[in-house]
């Protein structure tokens, strides 16, 4: 048992390459489609996956393609929990990193909005990080059954 009994779990691991971002987005969208999300919900989930994976690649690994990015998705009832992890450099000051518009790479067309987007699009959002060891983002969202709208 892995503490997720009752949940329907999927996990992915892939190289830290920007071309895998689209793969991650589509794979998570395909998995979550069994909850029958609305188009808006699906777009939100794809956006947060993109933001989190991009962060692992450009910040966690500083664009080193030899790193690995991991994603797990767990469906439990109407809830989807997503974790996105890297074993890269970690974040020194999480509170600061979570501020809207904060970016440590202002020179690289980053707007510092990734964490703010994740926090706003999801119901729950947590960052766990250790300098030199890596970062895990855990996010949860309730997918209201579309069926309810038609009944
Ligand atoms: N996986 C990670 N590993 C190390 N540092 C991270 C990671 N994710 C985020 N950070 C740090 O947190 C900061 C804020 O992240 P956020 O996604 O909000 O903005 P950004 O990536 O800089 O810009 P944007 O997402 O708008 O392109 C980053 O600039 C970086 O310093
Ligand atoms: Mg970002």
Automatic annotation (TrEMBL):
Keyword Transferase recorded: yes
Reaction(s) catalysed (UniProt annotation): L-seryl-[protein] + ATP = O-phospho-L-seryl-[protein] + ADP + H(+); L-threonyl-[protein] + ATP = O-phospho-L-threonyl-[protein] + ADP + H(+)
Molecular function per GO: protein serine/threonine kinase activity
Keywords tagged on the record: ATP-binding, Kinase, Nucleotide-binding, Serine/threonine-protein kinase, Sporulation, Transferase
Histidine kinase/HSP90-like ATPase domain ranges (all copies): 40-145
Record InterPro entries: Anti-sigma-factor_SerPK (IPR050267), Anti-sigma_F (IPR010194), HATPase_C_sf (IPR036890), HATPase_dom (IPR003594)
Coiled coil: none
Xref: HAMAP family: Anti_sigma_F
Protein's recorded name: Anti-sigma F factor
């Amino acid at each position: 048992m892995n503490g997720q009994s009752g949940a329907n779990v999927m996990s992915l691991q892939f190289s830290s390459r920007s071309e895998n971002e689209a793969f991650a987005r589509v794979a998570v969208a395909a998995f979550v489609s069994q909850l029958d999300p609305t188009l808006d919900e699906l777009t939100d989930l794809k956006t947060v996956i993109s933001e989190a994976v991009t962060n692992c690649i450009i910040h966690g690994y500083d664009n080193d393609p030899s790193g690995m990015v991991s994603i797990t998705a767990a469906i439990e009832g109407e809830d989807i929990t997503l974790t996105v992890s890297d074993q890269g450099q970690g974040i020194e000051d999480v509170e600061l990193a979570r501020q809207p518009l904060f970016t440590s790479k202002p020179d690289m067309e980053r707007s510092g909005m990734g964490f703010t987007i994740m926090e706003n699009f999801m119901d729950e959002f947590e960052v766990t990080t250790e300098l030199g060891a890596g970062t895990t983002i855990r996010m949860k969202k309730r997918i209201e059954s579309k069926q309810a709208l038609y009944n």
